[in-house]
């Protein structure tokens, strides 16, 4: 039995991937486990001819996913761009799992990411003892992806220093990785490609050079356009996380999820859903991912310290923590929202009292 807190996508959804492979008669690009049609079906969900239910991994614009998949079938790399919490990492992981059967070839971008993370490093004990050799070389996830014809992932590309980012230019344009110490180069096997993610909020941190940007086809993942769409996303992910943590997902009522999502959407947009009341927006992003976190926290509170049912008292603390990032500016915004919207909205008195008590 696998006791991992979080399984990789190809492990968690192995049954769905196998069912799609059995039912997939469409052409597959070199080294792809599934055809582009089947990859789209895996991400967006469908019911196969044999009755197998494929659960949706992404709820949103189908065309965006089709463009992303079509990009990976060409020699262009894919850049998933969007504000925090728009499922960029989630989509990248599932694309890699469906295309390559391996989502683990990952470089996590940070301010401290070095060229070695994108190219290769060395086993220094071996290097000092015997000098540069293939045995002393430590391949990066990018190099392994090139050697095996798989998808490599680069998370938070704009967090990586600009001079390190430019390491990708040769990899993406020439599809080779020079190893001058050995007088060799690694040539990418067909099927190799790169999925990078970047955060809209990080613009200006380490902006991509025009040369590097040209190597990517950019797909912008938006926040959910409709309330019910976002509610469905939160409900689905809370259910998945609840099962992983062995929490009863049915304890999170749909109506409580809808209220959390409504609060986030209204504060994010600076207006109530009906457009009648203008609001100030907090400094926090208030993404769908944060709404999932608030409901999941409420679920844990209800199960371990309540009667097992999520109510306003369980989500109030999470809402306060998500909205009030700046203790001065955001608290003013939050209190104004409570008094002008939550307090006056029919059926929300319990949420108003719980939120005031949580302060």
Structural class, from secondary structure content? alpha/beta
What's the structural domain tally? 2
Q: Can you tell me the residue ranges where pLDDT is under 50 for at least 5 consecutive residues?
A: none
Give the spatial strand order of the biggest sheet: 4-7-10-3-11
- Determine the CATH superfamily of the largest domain: P-loop containing nucleotide triphosphate hydrolases
CATH class (first level) name of the largest domain: Alpha Beta
Largest sheet descriptor = 5 strands, parallel
Task: List its traits.
359 residues; alpha/beta; Rossmann fold; 5-stranded parallel beta sheet; two-stranded antiparallel ribbon; 17 helices; 11 strands; globular
Task: Give a description of the structure.
The chain is an alpha/beta fold and 359 residues long. It is built from 17 helices and eleven strands. The relative contact order is 0.10. The chain starts with 8 loop residues before the first helix and ends with a helix. The protein folds into two domains: 68-220, P-loop containing nucleotide triphosphate hydrolases (Rossmann fold); 227-358.
In short:
The chain folds into 2 domains: 153 residues, Rossmann fold (3-Layer(aba) Sandwich); 132 residues.
Write the layout of secondary structure elements.
Blueprint: H1 9-12, H2 14-23, H3 36-44, E1 46-47, E2 53-54, H4 62-72, E3 77-82, H5 88-100, E4 106-108, H6 115-118, E5 120-122, H7 124-130, E6 137-139, H8 141-148, E7 151-155, H9 162-165, H10 167-174, E8 176-179, E9 184-187, E10 193-199, H11 210-213, E11 216-220, H12 227-244, H13 254-269, H14 288-305, H15 312-323, H16 329-342, H17 349-358
Parallel strand pairs: 3-10, 3-11, 4-7, 7-10
Antiparallel strand pairs: 1-2, 5-6, 8-9
């Amino acid at each position: 039995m696998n006791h991992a807190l979080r399984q990789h996508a190809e492990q968690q959804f192995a049954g769905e991937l196998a069912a799609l492979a059995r039912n997939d008669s469409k052409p597959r690009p070199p080294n792809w486990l599934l055809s582009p049609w089947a990859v789209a079906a895996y991400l967006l969900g469908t019911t196969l001819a044999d009755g197998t239910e494929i659960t949706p991994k992404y709820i949103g614009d189908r065309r965006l996913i089709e463009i992303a998949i079509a990009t990976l079938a060409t020699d262009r790399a894919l850049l998933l761009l969007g504000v925090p919490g728009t499922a960029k990492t989630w989509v990248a992981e599932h694309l890699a799992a469906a295309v390559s059967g391996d989502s683990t070839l990952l470089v996590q971008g940070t301010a401290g990411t070095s060229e070695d993370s994108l190219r290769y490093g060395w086993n220094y004990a071996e290097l000092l003892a015997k000098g540069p050799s293939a045995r002393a070389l430590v391949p990066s996830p990018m190099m392994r992806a090139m050697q095996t014809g798989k998808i490599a992932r680069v998370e938070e590309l704009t967090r990586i220093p600009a001079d390190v980012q430019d390491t990708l230019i040769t990899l993406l344009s020439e599809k080779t990785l020079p190893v001058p110490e050995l007088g060799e180069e690694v040539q990418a096997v067909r099927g190799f490609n790169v999925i990078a993610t970047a955060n809209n909020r990080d613009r200006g941190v380490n902006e991509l050079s025009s040369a590097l940007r040209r190597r990517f086809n950019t797909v912008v993942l938006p926040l959910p356009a409709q309330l019910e769409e976002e509610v469905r996303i939160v409900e689905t992910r809370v259910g998945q996380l609840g099962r992983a943590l062995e929490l009863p997902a049915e304890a999170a009522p749909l109506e409580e999820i809808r209220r959390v999502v409504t609060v986030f959407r209204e504060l994010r947009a600076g207006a109530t859903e009906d457009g009648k009341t203008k609001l100030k927006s907090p400094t926090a992003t208030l993404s769908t991912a944060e709404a999932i976190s608030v409901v999941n926290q409420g679920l844990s509170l209800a199960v371990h310290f309540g009667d097992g049912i999520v109510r306003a008292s369980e989500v109030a603390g999470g809402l306060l923590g998500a909205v009030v990032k700046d203790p001065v500016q955001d608290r003013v915004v939050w209190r104004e929202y409570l008094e002008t919207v939550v307090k006056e909205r029919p059926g929300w008195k319990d949420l108003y009292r719980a939120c005031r008590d949580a302060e």
